[in-house]
Design goal:
The protein is mainly α and about 130 residues long. It is built from five helices and three strands; from the N terminus they run E-H-H-E-E-H-H-H. The protein has helices at about 10-20, 20-30, 50-65, 70-80, 105-125; strands at about 10, 40, 45. It has a three-stranded antiparallel beta sheet with strand order 1-3-2.
């Protein structure tokens, strides 16, 4: 029998569900201010559904995408300030955004270089 999607989870339940050891979850609480589960009597942690999503995001960033803790902190902070913008991701006009949310000259150069590489690869595939 599994819990309802909206139910709170204890640290043990979340640990089993996601395959992350409890001490790692406690460490992440210290490292990420956005992760703040409810603490009841005896400092028992109860993770709300939004906490579970944050833990899943942190796990993905650190263990699948190769972010450092510092980089994951920056990613989460940027996402909380402006949820529609992912830094460095191509924007509809093709320009990338800097950490201030404005087009940066270096980002534009990187985007142009990546487009050039993409075009070269497309030509090489077409010729093959």
């Amino acid at each position: 029998m599994s819990k309802d999607q909206g139910a709170f989870r204890t640290i043990g339940e979340l640990s089993k569900e996601l395959g992350i050891k409890p001490h790692i979850l406690r460490y992440w609480e210290d490292q990420f201010a956005v992760l703040n589960p409810l603490k009841r009597a005896g400092a028992r942690r109860h993770y709300r559904p939004e906490d579970v999503e944050i833990v899943k995001t942190i796990n993905r960033l650190l263990n699948e995408e190769g972010y450092t803790i510092k980089g994951a902190r920056k990613f989460l902070a940027a996402r909380n300030k402006e949820p529609a913008i992912v830094l460095g991701a191509p924007q509809p006009d093709g320009a990338a955004l800097s950490s201030a949310g404005k087009p940066d000259e270096n980002d534009s150069l990187i985007v142009a270089e990546l487009k050039s590489i993409r075009d070269q690869l497309s030509e090489a595939l077409a010729a093959a």
